Amino acid sequence: MAESIEALVADCRRGRPAAQRALYERLGYQLMGVCLRYCPSREEAEDALQLTFVKIFTRLDQFRNQGPFEAWARRIAVTTSLNLWHQHQQRGLPLAIDEAHDVPAPGGTPLDQLSADDLVGQINALPPGYRAVLNLYAIEGYSHAEIGELLGISEGTSKSQLSRARRLLEARLHQQAHISRCHD
Q1: Which residue has the higher pLDDT, 84 or 50?
Q2: Taking the model in full, what pTM does it have?
Q3: 101-184 and 1-98 share a CATH fold
Q4: DSSP for 121-168?
């Protein structure tokens, strides 16, 4: 039977490498998904994931068992990814976007035929600020006040960017569905 997260955390606090490896294996996939939502490329998401685990292991004393460990680790992954994104912007580097694979679903309306990869690709193609706010609000469940604090923007700007992101995403998805329908 697999060890509980609590037992793994206790063993990590005791400095046991096997527990660190087990915790990484248990949470790595989930946290990589978080990093991919905020980083402009898979390579940067992998860097963010590694930094996330370094922070987790070096800050275990800050985890006070006031909620699930997974939520605490997820918040570290979000802030680490956002910090890398901010550093990327400050250096003035172009934002690369990984391409999604097109595998349409059979049947249904043109919008129904868009695959999950199509949706992820369209989200990744949003301007970085829109993408970050959309992910933080719709996927991570942060409030606009929390998003404002994380991104260094006002609550109103967060609401505005979410609204614009939704409109742009909807327009792009309809356009992609229309193009797909025309090519069938």
Answers
A1: 50
A2: 0.65
A3: no
A4: HHHHTS-HHHHHHHIIIIIS---HHHHHHHHT--HHHHHHHHHHHHHH
